[in-house]
Amino acid sequence: MDRIVECVPNFSEGRSVKTIAQLEQAIAAVETACVLNTHIDPDHNRSVITFVASPDKVVEAAFQGVARATQLIDIRTHSGVHPRLGATDVLPFVPVRNVTLDDCVMLAHQAGKRIAEELSIPVYFYEKAAMLESRVNLEDVRRGSLALLRKEIASPARAPDFGPAQVHETAGAIAVGSRPFLIAFNVNLKTGDLTVARRIAGSIRARTGGLPFLKALGFELLSRGLVQVSMNLVNYEVTGISQAFEAVKRETTKYGVEIAGTEIVGLVPQNALDPEAEYFVLLENFSPGLILENRLAECPD
After folding, report:
1. 3-class SS of residue 261
2. Is 82 a residue of the active site?
3. Are 172 and 208 within one domain?
4. Which of 39, 44, 78, 82 is catalytic?
5. Which pLDDT score, from 0 to 100, does residue 70 have?
6. pLDDT digits (tens, 9 = 90+) for 241-299
7. How far apart are CA 130 and CA 40, in angstroms?
8. One domain for residues 51 and 152
9. Which of 99, 121, 101, 100 is nearest to 111 (CA)?
């Protein structure tokens, strides 16, 4: 493909392999759509599907994934440690080849309008696609998760950008955005103390005076008896994986906690990796298939 857009829907399902496979199939059935990676996390109860498509087909593929999730996932019975707005929590569009961020804003708005009109799901636009300054940051859009949104959606401050001013009974709401490439990187700690992970996250994230372009939250991994510092590197050329890891490591020494391992969620560009770095040795899930360029090369033209 001469022009490529990446889309990374995050679905509120990380325990049913059958359901996740159906979501992948719905996306891949659209012409030019190529699923690059699926990351499944049962503790977060969340799956992240990364796919690419041509600009004229990417909205259709994204919509089909969201529509299938609306049929298969009932957010009323969902449980998991990760905050979420709906069955499809977030739907970002990312420029990859011969496409601009402005192009992706237009695609995000097209997708959001269709989701609102055809699925009756309230839509909020974030990052570059935000229509309101107060909604640029995803954490502001998702404040209080779905539980709080149910109570506040009828208020002017939390009215959706598109769609009904009430959450969908089973699918909740959705945040649709346009952004540059993001790296999701986790550090797992050898402790079950969630307070430690949350304090470390608060110390290192940009919003509370930490590293620039770094978002971080602390989560409990019940299945492993560990806690996790979960990070999004929104500009990895300024704050890269090594800097994020070293920041976490410095904080762990304050609490006498050891690092159990590290993890990449989704894909990562080749130039963002340092095989000589300590974090790389500790990666629990690394394979060449996590490198964006390798996966793109495997997609049919």
Report:
1. strand
2. yes
3. no
4. 82
5. 98
6. 999 999 999 999 999 999 999 999 999 999 999 999 999 999 998 999 999 999 999 99
7. 28
8. yes
9. 121
Report residue 235's pLDDT band, with 50, 70 and 90 as the boundaries: very high
Q: What is the CATH number of the domain that holds 291?
A: 3.30.70.670
What mean pLDDT is predicted for residues 52-81?
96
Q: What is the pTM of this model?
A: 0.93
Instruction: State both tokens at 89.
Output: 């929590």
What domain range includes position 49? 4-178
Containing 204, the helix (H) or strand (E) segment is helix 194-204
Sequence-separated (6 or more) residues with CB below 8 Å from residue 47: 10, 11, 13, 14, 20, 23, 38, 39, 40, 41
∠ at Cα 97 (178, 299), nearest 5°?
Answer: 105
Same domain, 14 and 157: yes
Q: Is the pLDDT of residue 80 over 90?
A: no
Boundary-marking domain end, from 162, 178, 194:
178
